[in-house]
Specification:
The complex is a heterodimer of chains A (310) and B (221).
Chain A: E1 2-7, E2 18-19, H1 26-37, E3 45-48, E4 78-85, E5 89-91, H2 92-112, H3 129-151, E6 159-161, H4 163-183, H5 193-218, H6 243-259, H7 262-289
Parallel strand pairs in A: 1-4
Antiparallel strand pairs in A: 1-2, 3-4, 5-6
Helix pairs in contact in A: 2-3, 2-4, 3-5, 5-6, 6-7
Chain B: H1 2-37, H2 43-57, H3 59-67, H4 74-93, H5 103-128, H6 133-139, H7 143-168, H8 185-220
The chains are: A alpha+beta (310), B mainly alpha (221).
């Protein structure tokens, strides 16, 4: 069949179009486009079916696993696809690794090295026990995240735009340094022993719970990346859609209760807001996907992220 | 019912815009008169009251955007109002040593001319349902000159106020304290200066885009 590839402004991206097998898959089409354009490797391509002009609907995105025939609604000799360049891509693993590496490395710098003399604090620095525990907790957390990135997570998308590397690293590395600065400060004031123990204890429990949530989510998908979106079940997922975010937020709450810095609370609030946004989108998507029609199960009534509020 | 609300909205906004217009007209009048009669060192003292009132009233505009009384996105109004309030209260009001600087004159004149045009434009639009084309042209063209002069005055005043900020220790929070928090107003001011670097071209190009949209729309009508 003949495939015409146009940009969103209507210009033909591949002059003369492409000639493909009738049984070709979208992945084959992506390979062919890459061969002709040389610049746009498959993960950079977003291919959609053309929308009638003025239509307010969202365009249908071609799934790389499906065959092209599935998208031809009548005429199987000819199909037009609209191309969008998603920009340079990196794998999600690369993105997560770099954003988590920053906090893992930068925090210990404030603990181990005499950086505060450059901020005008000369003289000896007394290290409180809580500051040592905080170092261990923090580094364990980001080490856990990196391990999960490589061994636990099964991603729905293989790649993410390169620009996200800079944006996400700025977020993690800046907040990480901001918290590390106050936590390891020579004039740091610890909270009571009891408050510290409760905070760290609660945080650790939530980290374990969070890890278990990640395992449950992983088992929803098969190793080859198919499986898309499923209804999560078991453990806290039975009452809350994004139990993984819930446990993550509570884990930071525990850490911040134990260490008591405004910087820590600021990070907690921002992180909670970001995760709440994600959770709302995920909850909405799952409800839309699992509407109870055509044999699909109906998505059960659940909290989105933070019972009893949302 | 909807008609009543619409009428009330227009009435309120007409009143609001023209009231603040009067405030800024006062600022411009007093500033120019003081410059001619006494010199730039005395400009702040003469405009202080109407300036503080008119500029702070702009906080209402954030509310207007949030509740949907006006269409402006708060992403555009927030940085604008933020920088104005910072310079007005956080620099001029808080550090009297800077008030005699000549940049105060260029600042209040740039601001007041811009605001006189802006508030009369919106005041007319809400009252009559439209604004005359010459007023629209003014609103979307004077920024070519007044943005650069205004922004340079803001940046300049923040920069020249730095020594006074450092000496005074005002608004600073020092450690140790139970919340393990610190805030240094001097370094925060330097950070603000840094934000002006990407912020100014962003605001300028936003106005350019608004100009294109507004002037082409009026051509088609």
């Amino acid at each position: 069949m003949k495939v015409t590839v146009v940009s969103r402004s209507g210009r033909e991206l591949v002059k003369g179009g492409l000639e493909l097998n009738d049984s070709a898959s979208v992945a084959d089409l992506q390979e062919a486009i890459y061969k002709r354009t040389k610049k746009f490797y498959p993960s950079r391509q977003r291919l959609t079916l053309p929308l009638p002009p003025g239509s307010k609907d969202r365009p249908i995105v071609l799934n790389y696993k499906k065959s092209l025939k599935d998208y031809c609604d009548g005429n199987s000799d000819n199909i037009t696809v609209v191309f969008k360049d998603l920009g340079p891509q990196v794998s999600y693993r690369t993105l997560f690794f770099w954003e988590y590496l920053g906090p893992l490395i930068l925090y210990p710098v404030f603990y181990f090295f005499p950086v505060y003399q450059y901020f005008g604090y000369k003289g000896e620095r007394v290290i409180h026990p809580v500051q040592t525990y905080a170092l261990c907790y923090w580094c364990f957390h980001y080490f856990k995240r990196i391990m999960e990135t490589f061994f636990v997570h099964r991603f729905s998308h293989a790649t993410s735009p390169l620009s996200n590397v800079f944006r996400n690293c700025a977020y993690y590395w800046t907040f990480g340094s901001y918290i590390a600065y106050y936590l390891n400060h020579p004039l740091y004031t610890p909270v009571s022993d009891l408050q510290m123990k409760i905070g760290f204890g609660f945080g650790l429990i939530c980290q374990v719970a969070n890890f278990y949530c990640h395992i449950l989510l992983r088992n929803l998908r098969t190793p080859d990346g198919s499986g898309g979106y499923q209804i999560p079940r078991g453990f806290l997922f039975n009452i809350v859609t994004c139990a993984n975010y819930t446990t993550e937020i509570y884990q930071w709450l525990g850490f911040t209760i134990a260490t008591q810095t405004v910087a820590g609370y600021a990070f907690l609030v921002v992180a909670a807001m970001i995760m709440t946004n994600w959770a709302l989108a995920k909850h909405r998507r799952l409800k839309k996907l699992f509407d109870g029609k055509d044999g699909r199960p109906k998505y059960p009534r659940r909290w989105v992220i933070l019972p009893p509020f949302l | 019912m909807a008609g009543v609300f619409e009428l009330l909205r227009r009435l309120y906004l007409t009143l609001y815009n023209w009231t603040v217009f009067v405030g800024w007209a006062q600022v411009l009048f007093l500033a120019v008169r003081t410059l001619k009669e006494s010199g730039h060192e005395h400009v702040y003292n003469s405009v202080e009251k109407p300036l503080l009132l008119a500029q702070t009233a702009a906080v209402l505009e954030i509310l207007h955007g949030l509740v949907g009384l006006v269409r402006s996105p708060i992403t555009a109004t927030l940085p604008q109002i933020g920088s104005r309030l910072y310079v007005t209260w956080g620099i001029l009001y808080s550090f009297p040593e800077i008030r005699t600087h000549f940049l105060v004159s260029s600042l209040v004149i740039s601001w007041s001319i811009t605001e006189i045009i802006r508030y009369s434009f919106f005041g007319t639009k809400e009252a009559l349902g439209f604004a005359p084309s010459w007023l629209m042209w003014l609103r979307y063209s004077t920024f070519f000159l007044l943005y650069p002069t205004g922004i340079s005055s803001e940046v300049g005043l923040i920069y020249f106020a730095l020594p006074y900020i450092k000496k005074s220790d005002k608004y600073c929070v020092r450690m140790p304290n139970t919340w393990n928090f610190s805030f240094d107003y001097f370094y925060a001011a330097i950070l603000v200066l840094g934000v002006y670097v990407p912020g100014s071209p962003h605001m300028y190009s936003y106005m350019l885009g608004q100009r294109k949209k507004a002037l082409s729309k009026s051509k088609r009508e």
